[in-house]
Specification:
Layout lengths: L12 E9 L9 E4 L5 E3 L5 E6 L2 E8 L6 E7 L4 E2 L2 E3 L18 H17 L3 E16 L3 E2 L2 E2 L12 E15 L3 E11 L11 H5 L7 E3 L7 E3 L10 E11 L2 E10 L8 E7 L4 E10 H4 L6 E10 L5 E14 L2 E16 L11 E5 L8 H7 L6 H18 L1 H11 L6 H4 L2 E4 L4 E5 L6 E4 L3 E13 L5 E11 L4 E13 L4 E13 L8 H11 L6 E16 L2 E13 L35 E12 L4 E5 L2 E6 L4 E9 L9 E14 L5 E16 L36 E10 L17 E11 L3 E13 L3 E10 L3 E10 L5
Parallel strand pairs: 1-7, 1-8, 13-23, 23-34
Antiparallel strand pairs: 1-4, 2-3, 2-5, 5-6, 9-12, 9-22, 10-11, 12-13, 14-15, 16-17, 17-18, 18-19, 19-20, 20-21, 21-22, 24-25, 25-27, 26-27, 27-28, 28-29, 29-30, 30-31, 31-32, 32-33, 33-36, 34-35, 36-37, 37-38, 38-39, 39-40, 40-41, 41-42, 42-43
Amino acid sequence: MLLALSFSSVNATSLSGVVSDNLGNPLPFANVLIVGSTRGTTTNENGAYQLELAPGQYQIAYMFIGYKRIVLDISVGQEAITRNVSLEVEDIQLQEVVISGKEDPAYPIMRKVIAAREYHYNQVRDYQCQAYIKGLQRIVNAPDKVLGFNVNFDGSLDSNNAGIVYLSESISDFTFKKPDKVREIMISSKVSGKSQSFSWNRAADLVEFDFYKNSFPIEVISDRHFVSPLSDNAMKYYKYKLMGTIDEGGRHIYKIFVSPKGESGPVFKGNIYIVDQEWVLHSLDLMLTKKDANINYVDTLNVHYTYIPVNDTVWMPLSQQYDFTFNILSIQAAGYIIAVYKDHKVNTGVRDKFFTNEVMKVTEESNTRDSVYWDSIRPVPLTTEEVNDYVRKDSLEELKKSKPYLDSLDRKGNIPDVFDLVLGYEYRKRYRKFSVRLIPPIEWVQYNTVEGWNIRLQAAIMKEFDKRRLLRITPTIRYGFSNKHWNGTLQTQYLFNRVKYSSIGVEGGQYVYQFNRDSPISELVNSFYTLFLERNFLKIFEERYVKVSYRTEVVNGLIFWSDISYSHRNHLKNTSSSKMFNFKSRDFSANNPEHPDFSPDDFSNHEAFFLSIALRYQPGVKYISRPDQKIMIESKWPQFFLQYRKAIPGVLGSDLNYDLLAGEILQTVRTGMAGSSRYSIKGGGFINHNRMGFMDYKHFNGNQTVFGMNNFNGFQLLDYYEAATNGSFFEAHYEHHFDGFMLARIPKLNKLKWQLVLGAHYLYTSDFKSYSEFAIGLENIFRVIRADFVNGISNRYGYRWGVRIGITFNNL
């Protein structure tokens, strides 16, 4: 057979048609393959397909999971060709098998497949291909309003509150080399209604879902890894049933139904198709559900893969498809992501130096392609609905950018409503790319024993310029009704280069701050404890200051910060003793941190002049380059922090003189099925401490309330200031999140989706000596609550224990 090997769109002829079943129903996402090549396409939701072919003789194979494969001889000339194809349901042959009572005949087949898994995984050392990806999300049904907000998705919905809300296509040149080297160049990008935007499609994200791996993550729907039906230990997780065999082009294909062995496991359900004797995947049709797989965010996820032989021994994916549905706040939605690959080149010996830390580059001209280009290159035809979505949104794009349209949105959106009480009010001028956001009223009024009732008003004023440059101005005013002090600051930050993360900031004013500038206790929690429990943990001082700061990326992965500042610090005393309940055994403490080195008599108002330099470095950090920004995504190495802070005496009357040098190592480590760990190791000390204010000591994040507000970098049973030091220090934090690995194995309890957490924390200072904490906790309680039981051991105070309740948004 003669194959035309030139597939350029130049002098190409269109082969198109519809693939349907024998009843005339279109088969969406069926595969159409040029036999003897690695080129093909996939039908759209209406079963339509299109291939651009140079003149010549071809054999075209039409395939759909569950249906018989058809191969047609096609002669291509200069005229467009239409071929509508009807596929019959696969003729599954299942000979009568006598089962001994021990196992289904699928099991010996799967043992051979599992035994061959590692070979098939490793036989492809590297490969190159071109990837077409299309993503679509649509609203199926939605109420007119959700939580009082109109649901219109920027006018995307029709009169029935349904329609496409996102549609994007991309074409990338993709190269991969085991174990984890990736280079992807997006050469074409199209986003419906946003001609200046760039698609977020990424082939590397889909390649990660490799069923020849023992397990792999799907981070958008779960913290857990999912077990492949081909995994070395798959027999512990799956049941198998042989549904029959299919003859396809001289090959025998086994159809095997896989299902979970237990409840709520990280496993799939559906059919896999195995090639006899070769023991490779031919295709698969699997699904996950919220009920069975304990997944988040989506109700169902269907996964469809079709593999093709790219040479005599290697099979590679021709297409991947992910269909999903979800229901949030009565908004019913669905969508899909489809990827079609072509021109596979396997084991060509791609050199390591071909790869860099830039794992993906979106070219600047990728979003300039016209409709003629897309019609010639797009492997999956658009449906009528998708064509209309492009036409309608693209025609409305200029209107939606116009001043009258944006002003009309602002007139409606700028009207205050009840939700602003919780979320904060925002005033916007979209055409001018200008906005002002006020903090929520719940943060306006607080109480402490120094200021009494106090009111704080803060706004974030933002103005965006071209090239995504951003100016942010944050004014804050604060008034204490008891001490009658006005305070206010003005902070400005100008982000002028998003590729280098470069910004400059200037701020100044007079304000009150906790002695630990990390603010270990929130003002809201302190207000509650002070008014209702007669515990005033918040300890503050007043500072008048000015500071100039600068930040930029020096080289990939190395971020540099520096700031210079002048301060005048004032001591503050309690002026109020209001409380809702009177505890006879309690009384308010003075506004003095409880520490042997701190005495109010030693606190004199003083001047300070500081120079700070900090570096953050993460070796081997991978990143995505887009025309308007750089996005750091991953590295197998930890992050290294180094900070130097100098109080310079004599400058502008500065009274202080000390040098602080500190560092930290921080990393999150994925442990596959067992969850993930993260650790932090910090250490340092004061090179000199000739004269210091207590707020300049090294402070550690303690907690004296029941609210666990900082579970990782803090100590849940440590008093706020008891361990503060002006000497040397060392602290270490470790947490392991099992992500359902433990509790998902327990019947009934696994339905709650709670997750186990273990933690260990250690602190040593030259004067406080050692302190340790060990914690066991549950997170994901009602999706946002975390509860920890904590034990603390101190050389100074002995044994402590307590319970901490916190809020986490990791699983929202």
